[in-house]
Design a protein that fits this description.
Blueprint (H helix, E strand, L loop, with lengths): L1 H15 L4 H17 L1 H16 L6 H12 L4 H13 L5 H17 L2 H18 L4 H12 L1 H4 L4 H10 L3 H7 L1 H21 L11 H8 L3 H16 L4 H18 L5 H34 L2 H10 L5 H16 L4 H18 L4 H15 L7 H10 L3 H24 L1 H9 L3
Length: about 425
């Protein structure tokens, strides 16, 4: 147990020295294995951990979904989505903000990264809302919170990483994220409608024109159909997540070439970004695996589980403590760092308490989503403020009603697990 305290101290020291969390975990775990078992057994454990994680076929899904997003977002796709959504709901008071939520849902299904989604929405949707005289607090809040939908709505990179770290079905996680994601989007729309009427944050909309709505949607429908096909392939069991990712890349390439929005430069830069992001994520998964192996081989995980079971606390109280811990970590760490740091210990505890792995994954993802908005880090807030050139205080004030909404949605998901599980339980 003394080596464990040393490992934890080394981990926090390395993080204080600004080493990335993944590498800090990997380095401290290697030190712990050497201290506990000696150099040769430690290297043997390290070799096994490397092989098991890097040879997993499901890892191929990561670059495929990232590349699909890169190909689909080429050609100013986000602006086209906003214009199409505005054509359908722009006649409502706050309609442009509602349209921004609709395009955020679409972008979430394309990008899979919250910060990338927030940055894209801030660059494309915020200027449109400012042009129509929307209050900056509402405009910045919508693009900031809308970006968090990419954490939940499939194909979410956070869900992929959680699935690999915990060996949970990524297909079931993707399908389980649909209802919570849509519930959050619906709550955002209701919040916008209330704020628009009560606070006057948004002007009245323009008259609805059916012909214009269909015209503006022509370039968006093929992408929507592709996303539905990818999700349907996973839901029906016709394809694994990796195969669905390959289908998505092929479809995105065909659409991009047929719509003449892809060039050799677009494809090359998309491939480059996909490789860079994939290497980062695989490093996180690998280092987290080393740390999980250290906890397992030294019996620390089992000891913590026994201590939790003997604590006398009800399982719901322990769950709430873990949720609170994840929310606190969300204030200072990004989503992938939280997963790599907590899942080696939190997931075995949740499994021992009898909680469903898919449902727990959605709860973890929701807490990570909230962490992207809460100070002092609030990563999406900083991204939005930087992109829109607004003061941080303006964005933080604007997102307060939406943080309350996020907490409400999290409470609903905790109280009613069936909302999360009914779709994956119907999978073929």
């Amino acid at each position: 147990m003394q080596s464990f305290y040393l490992v934890v101290a080394l981990l926090f020291l390395l993080m204080l020295l600004r080493m990335p969390v993944a590498f800090a975990m990997g380095a401290s775990a290697v030190v712990g294995l050497v201290l506990h078992f000696g150099p040769d057994p430690a290297l043997a454990i390290l070799e096994r951990a490397v092989f098991e994680k890097t040879s997993s076929f499901i890892l191929v899904a990561i670059p495929l979904f990232i590349l699909m997003a890169e190909l689909l977002t080429a050609g100013n796709m986000t602006r086209r989505a906003i214009i199409a959504c505005q054509a359908w709901v722009g006649h409502l008071r706050g309609g442009l903000a509602v349209a921004t939520v609709g395009s955020a849902v679409m972008l979430a299904a394309l990008v899979g990264s919250s910060t990338a989604s927030a940055a894209t929405m801030a660059a494309s949707a915020f200027p449109e809302m400012r042009r129509y005289r929307y209050d900056d607090r509402l405009s910045s809040a919508v693009v900031c919170v809308g970006g968090t939908l990419a954490v939940m709505i499939p194909p979410s990179i956070v869900l992929v990483v959680y699935g690999i770290l915990t060996e949970t079905s990524i297909g079931r996680l993707f399908i389980a994220g649909i209802v919570p994601g849509m519930l959050t989007a619906a709550g955002m729309i209701m919040t916008i409608m209330i704020l628009s009427r009560v606070s006057g944050y948004a002007p009245a909309g323009s008259p609805f024109q059916l012909r214009s709505a269909f015209k503006e949607s022509r370039g968006v429908w093929p992408i929507v159909v592709l996303i539905i096909l990818v999700i349907a392939a996973i839901y029906t069991g016709a394809a694994s997540p990796t195969e669905a990712g390959a289908l998505g890349v092929t479809g995105a390439l065909i659409l991009g070439l047929s719509q003449r929005v892809l060039s050799p430069g677009n494809i090359s830069s998309g491939l480059s970004r996909a490789v860079t992001t994939t290497v980062m994520i695989v490093a996180i998964i690998f280092c987290s695996s080393i740390f999980a192996n250290y906890l397992a081989f030294t019996q620390i995980t089992q000891g913590v589980i026994v201590a939790v079971e003997n604590s006398g606390l009800p399982s719901w109280a322990i769950l709430l403590l873990m949720v609170g811990m994840l929310l606190l970590l969300g204030m200072v760490l990004d989503q992938l760092a939280i997963l790599s740091l907590t899942m080696p210990l939190a997931f075995p505890i949740a499994s021992a308490l009898g909680y469903d792995a898919v449902w727990f994954g959605i709860i973890v993802t929701k807490t990570v989503e909230i962490g992207l908005l809460t100070p002092p880090l609030g990563l999406n807030v900083y991204v939005t403020a930087g992109q829109t050139k607004l003061p941080l205080s303006t964005v933080f004030v604007g997102i307060l009603p939406f943080i309350l909404l996020e907490v409400l949605v999290l409470s609903i998901l905790l109280l009613f697990p069936g909302l999360t599980l009914w779709l994956p339980n119907m999978m073929w």
